[in-house]
Design brief:
Blueprint (H helix, E strand, L loop, with lengths): L1 H19 L20 H40 L7 H55 L1
């Protein structure tokens, strides 16, 4: 039983010590954030750290709320039959496809023009060669 009473005494001492330390009243905090009795660089660090955490939580909450609102709007639009707006990546991909398509069309037109010109030259050469053979036939018949 003596061990139990020693343990109770230790716990009582810890609680009494905690109660003796002065805590700031709610709503009336001072510059001594870590309650070590003075206001120093550790208090400044804790103040900045708490502000950064609060800002991050607010940003996360805002991001989550805007994401939920966006998804809800998309669901409502989809139910109404309105197609969803494309994302920036989808718009960029569409612009790339349009440019690529225009380039290939230009290449195809150029190749078609070159092919047409080649066929015209071949036809001219064929006509010239057939005309030359007709002239030679006429010349041979006249003798």
């Amino acid at each position: 039983m003596e061990k139990t009473s020693d343990l109770i005494e230790i716990i009582d001492d810890v609680f009494l010590k905690a109660l003796e330390e002065k805590m700031d009243p709610v709503g009336k905090e001072d510059d001594d954030i870590d309650n070590d009795g003075d206001s120093d660089s550790s208090d400044q660090y804790l103040k900045k750290r708490r502000a950064a955490i609060a800002k991050q939580k607010a940003n996360m909450k805002e991001g989550i709320m805007s994401d939920i609102a966006s998804k809800a709007k998309t669901a409502i639009d989809r139910a109404r039959g309105i197609p969803p707006k494309p994302t920036e990546d989808e718009l960029r991909a569409a612009r790339v496809r349009a440019k690529t398509s225009a380039i290939f069309k230009q290449i195809n037109r150029t190749m078609a023009m070159k092919d047409k010109a080649r066929k015209a030259r071949e036809a001219e050469q064929k006509d010239e060669s057939s005309c030359g053979s007709k002239k030679s036939l006429k010349a041979s018949k006249s003798y």
